[in-house]
Amino acid sequence: MIVPLVGNADFTSFTVGTPLPLTGRTDTAWDGEGLVRIDSGYVVVTVETEPRVERFDGTGKRTGVVTLPPHFAMQAPGNKGMESLTLSPSGRFLFTANEAALTIDGPTPTKTRGTAIRILKRDLTTGTDIELAYRTEPLGAGGASGDMGVSELAALDDDMLLVLERGFQADYGNTVRIFRVDLRTGAHVETTPALNDATPVLTKTLVVDIGTLPPGNATHPGPQPNPILDNYEALALGPTLPDGRRLLFVTSDDNASATQVPRVLVLAIRGL
Prior knowledge:
The protein has strands at residues 5-7, 14-16, 35-38, 41-47, 52-56, 62-65, 86-87, 93-97, 116-123, 129-135, 147-155, 160-169, 173-182, 204-209, 232-240, 246-252, 264-269. The chain has 272 residues and is an all-beta fold. The strands form five sheets. A four-stranded antiparallel β-sheet has the order 3-4-5-6, with no helix packed on it. The two termini are 30 Å apart.
């Protein structure tokens, strides 16, 4: 189901709007992730472990699927499939990416090396796809085990994306950074059978490291290098303030765990 959050005038608090149940799905599997509004309907990443992206009309009724290139099914073991989904402001391009490297594209991240993922850009007018390679940062400052991957994208225009990298290490907590990438700087890899160290990857620019933000009065029940950190998985662009900064909403998923916290961070960022 889609649950809207309605912000007050200065976005310091939110109320829950009327939920929209998603109906007509053909199976009971559900691991809802990315969501975009297209025209009067929705496109939703409904199951990231397969992966599966489905279409729904404005009433929430399933109307079909978004077919992905077959190699995206060769995802790393565990919950490492599609999480991200965004639509360009023009409405022409849909973007998604696998969280961690496909099994054909190399290893999951280590302490010294990030994981290589494929950003998919689909032209909704022509139905054509391009893919570009992107490499995450290595694991965070904790131990040698853990994960780091792409949990969300947000399109600034037809070629510019914000990329949310989210990692977790049990002895440390989360590492969360947002980068900006220009897809015009990358080489197409849709016909590349396997990514490797010689594959050109997109150049990225750090926008914000969530772990460096002032925690304010935030607390956290689990180990975290900064109590404001958690399992952030969603990005949404908001309005531009009178001083030119644009609001960016960053939302966490607590996985129904007592050691995690559901949060909406409201960031004001110049240059967006």
